[in-house]
Amino acid sequence: MATVSPASDFAPVAASAAAPARTRDPRLDFYRGIAMFIILIAHIPNDPWAKWIPARFGFSDATEIFVFCSGMASAIAFGGAFLRKGWWIGTARVSFRIWQVYWAHICLFFFVAMSMAALDQSGLFEKTYVSSLNLQHFFNDPAPQIVGLFTLTYVPNYFDILPMYLVVLAMMPMFMGLYRFGFWAVAATSVAIWLVAQTDILDLPAEPWSERQWFFNPFGWQLLFFTGFAFMRGWIPAPPVSKTLIWAAALFLIFSMPFGSWKVFTWINAAAPDLADEIRKVWPVTKEFRDKTDFGLFRYLHFLSLAYLGWVVAGEHGHRLIATGQGTAAKVWQFLLTVIAKVGQQSLAVFVFSMAAARLIGVGLDLSGRDVASVFVANMIGFAMIIGVAYLAAWFKSQPWKSKK
């Protein structure tokens, strides 16, 4: 029976593990960049464009892209530290990231809360923006809510993704330690935690005045994060390009569309009322399997199907994403690819900024109205801003002040 000694046996963890990728995969940055644009649209209040985001056409949405790609990025950024420096240094590296994400969450909350309060204090609006985010409890009785905010026992709905990400990151040292016993120890533990999460035993309280739980249960969502992590570490081999798998994935996506959102269902209801009646009968049965809070099974299968098709389309090492011609179309595509990938590379900065900007863009739409032109301009301004933030964050990370030139 294997015994585990303290630090020495964890340095390095699993020396025989498959060599991790040491450079960023263009597919990772591209798809995570796409997710950032979708997340912005999804969080602009009453944005008509949100009617056409992927969430309206299936079980999974941009959240799954963000979490899965974050797992892959973490495998590059943190997984290597465990292998090169050992378990303790790897844990320290993850802890520093947790510290960064924690304060990003706190700052995001206070900025948005301040902005909504300033709008209400201005007296220019009939509606109350504080109540639109259900923040009246915070302003009516701030002392206990500040304590709850810093201890993550007060997690308002709009601010629930980063806390989930924090808990998932905190689980990484445990899984890296388990990998010393083999990949199946990691897989079995992750699946077991996910299964328990489906019973609601691991729900976390979101506010003290009700029984509402965290909207994103990290113990359910960790399955997707560590799936991406395992793929990027090489613990799970890349799936083959198979016509059978392509058709299976495509058919699952197509047939799940009416159950993922009523957007597609309304079309079916108009075209085939009898079929719509049958779907209505099945709809309640699928509730637990499409649950977003605990990350239901259908969401997992739906995203894996979508990710597989995206992987096939991009080609090996993402070679199909890279323009090869010299024409105008190739140059435009290469420019777009570069911009989208930059947004994906700076996802934390972009995400935090977009969550704050989305509320203010919504205020602009409240003032201008939501006609086609106003909505187009508002979304384009939002896109331009998150692109600017991505390039600015990259510039700061390059530390130009240290340049010898």
Shape: globular
Tell me, rounded to a whole number, the average pLDDT. Answer: 87
N- and C-termini, Cα separation = 58 Å
**Tally of separate helices:** 17
Binned, the helix content reads 55-70%
The major pleated sheet works out as: none
- Beta percentage is under 5%
* Record field, number of beta strands: 0
> Rg to the nearest angstrom?
22 Å
Global structural class: mainly alpha
Order of helices and strands: HHHHHHHHHHHHHHHHH
The low-confidence runs, each spanning 5 or more residues with pLDDT under 50, are 1-22
Q: What's this entry about, in short?
A:
The chain contains 17 helices and no strands. With about 400 residues, it is mainly alpha-helical.
Report on this model:
The protein has 405 residues and is mostly helical. Helix content is 66%, strand content 0%. It contains 17 helices and no strands. It has helices at 26-43, 62-85, 87-122, 129-132, 136-140, 142-151, 161-170, 172-178, 183-197, 218-233, 243-260, 262-271, 273-282, 297-314, 328-345, 347-368, 372-397. Helix 11 (243-260) crosses helix 12, helix 12 (262-271) packs antiparallel against helix 13 and helix 16 (347-368) packs antiparallel against helix 17 (372-397). The longest helix is centred in the first third of the chain and has 36 residues, at 87-122. The model is unreliable at 1-22 (pLDDT under 50).
